[in-house]
Every structure is written in C-alpha cells, then in structure tokens.
Amino acid sequence: HDYVKHKKITTQLGEALTITCQVTYSSEYCYIKSPNGTEYPMVDDKESQMGMCSLRLEKATIADVGKWGCFFARETGLIVEEMTTEVRLAELMSPGQVEGKSGDNVNLMCSTYGLPLKYCRFVSPSGQGYFIKNVHSFNRIRYYGKGLEYGECGITIQESTPLDSGKWICAT
C-alpha cells in the first residue's frame, strides 16, 4: 500500500475546502465523513472506480475543523478501508505590544509562522475592519511584511494618530 492514509491540511475560514483521498485499487463506492458525523456518499462512480474519493465545500466553517474520514469499499468480506484528513485553521499570532508617537509610521505584524494565507484582516480599536492583501497601496493602512504566502500579515499605519492607539486584532 503506497498511498497516504493520514494527512493534515490547513485552510482559512470562508475559503473553499477540498477533502481528497486516494487508494491504489478500484472501489465500488466510497463516502466521506465530516468531524460532526455527517456522511457524504460519492456521487461520481467513475471517481471511486479509479480509487478516488473527494468532496469540495465552497466555504470552510469552524464545524469543518477536525478529523475527516474517507471510507472505501473493498471486495466482499474485507473490512472497509478508512483514511483520515485532519483539517486545521491557519491561526494568526497577535501583534503584541507596539509603541509609536503621533505622526510616526507604525508597523503591526501577525504571523502563522510559515502557513500561507490568501488574505487577512485587521480590526482597529474602534471596530473598523481592514481587508489586507500584499499589494501596493497608497492608503493610510498598507500591507507590511514578506508576503501572505509566507504567513505574514502585517500593516503599516502611515502617520498614526491618537485614534490609532488601543488594541488591534488580526484575523483570517
């Protein structure tokens, strides 16, 4: 058996999520079981005949985090084969304490320590949300860091004001 029986994947809330399992033999059917026990039978018989089982969710939610199982039928009398995929969320570590004088440019950084991100958000102390991508911008709040693909979600606050002081939250 030269195929993966257990794997881990990372996603972000709201992103598309695909669970895929593959075996080296043809199977008459397979189904995928979510962490909460919901079973998704395979609709495409051609896929399971080629030893594949997959499920695509349009938007990942908190309920999708955890252990997913793929179950493949084998020949009569043999137990069903189970494979697992563990879904994790890319979590951002908080920016910590940053100080700056009014009028300074202030950098805030959150990181997943290497897990790639497609985007991230910062929420200001007043509750305003900022959608952040690593593209060049002339806005007062700009992307800062090596790149989302490196798991770095940072912002530069140009010419900070007293209204910028307080707790900033970063989220995916």
From TrEMBL:
* Protein's name in the database: Ig-like domain-containing protein
Organism annotation: Photinus pyralis (Common eastern firefly)
